[in-house]
Amino acid sequence: MPDVNEYKCPCCGAKLEFNSAVQKMKCPYCDSEFDIDTVQDYNEQLSAATGDEMNWDTEAGGEWAEGETSNMRVYSCKSCGGQIIAEETTGASFCPYCNNPVIMAGTFSGDLRPDLIIPFKLDKEAAKKAYEKFITGKSLLPKVFKDQNHIEEIKGLYVPVWLFGAEADANMCFRAEKKKTWSDANYRYVETSYYQAVRKGKMSFEHVPVDGSQKMPDALMESIEPYDYTQAVPFKTAYLSGYLADKYDVSSEESINRANTRIKSSTEAAFAQSVTGYDSVQCESSAVKLNGGKAQYALYPVWILNTDWNGTKYTFAMNGQTGKLVGDLPADVAKAAVMFFGITGGIGVVGSILWILFQILTGGN
After folding, report:
1. Contact, 274 vs 170, CB < 8 A?
2. Rounded distance, CA 199 to CA 34, Å?
3. Are 105 and 264 in contact (CB under 8 A)?
4. How many other C-beta atoms are found inside a 10 Å radius of the C-beta of residue 123?
5. What letters, b where the CB count within 10 A reaches 16 and e where it falls short, cover 222-259?
6. Most CB atoms within 10 A, among 93, 140, 177, 295?
7. What percent of the chain has pLDDT over 70?
8. Euclidean distance between CA atoms 309 and 305, whole angstroms
9. Nearest partner of 15 among 37, 47, 43, judged by Cα
10. How far is residue 51's CA from residue 171's CA, in Å, rounded to a whole number?
11. Structure pTM?
């Protein structure tokens, strides 16, 4: 049981004090008063909903069969440090992440064999059309982004992904508020009522993806989600034919924190949706315990195009299964200046014509 001195005010979160005059716990900041039993129950619920237990079995991937990788080559980029895998017949000349030349580092060996792969469903022509549609109408886009030779540089890349799954036992406390307002001839009144909503339950998570490549930003990879996991198949090297594959450089153990964050935030959001009928709801404390947490190693298909412009890298990425795409594009400052001065110049001309007409119609008065 927490000490009385540790009790928090349900309204503002400040430390409560016992007020002998009213024989209640009173907040020195917002003047709220509470029975001791009420405050004790409130703080016990908060204490019970703290402390996550999120443990994982990160044994993922398998071993390569003898001769399975004999036709696979590793290409190394000296600029960003990326290592790309491709079939000997496919080859690789430029890094899909930074567009710098790559050199063949040797025959592929070591590392884990993926458990699963989602094959490319959309081909290069579909990716090119999506990119062309994406940039259509953007008049301030630098010419290099519209150049046909540049568009041809779109590459199909399998990105390494760790898939996490577990059952989550959750205990959460939410602070909810209801506001009532009214007014008279002199004042406007606001009455705020505070509530504690406690939620306990279970949620199952399957195939929560965490990007296993340092070169592929997590935000970019997550922005082209979701992938349809039902179309995942057991990995076979034949699916790599004609495409590149990135070697993972973030282990499953190193990906746990990201998986925990995604699962915890999703759980809190789902539980918060059950707290209805209030003007505002805020999660005050939560405890999530994972059971049966396991990871798998998979490859996800991505069409990717990188361009450097004035020292900044711009990336276009498309989900190779669903076609969902994202990209950041620059504006050509020179074009913008021409357009701006052209418009303002046009306004000046129109203004001069209107002024002349006004002088004629008014006789110069």
Report:
1. no
2. 23
3. no
4. 12
5. eebeebeeeebeebebebbeebbbbbbebebeebbebb
6. 295
7. 88
8. 13
9. 43
10. 10
11. 0.77
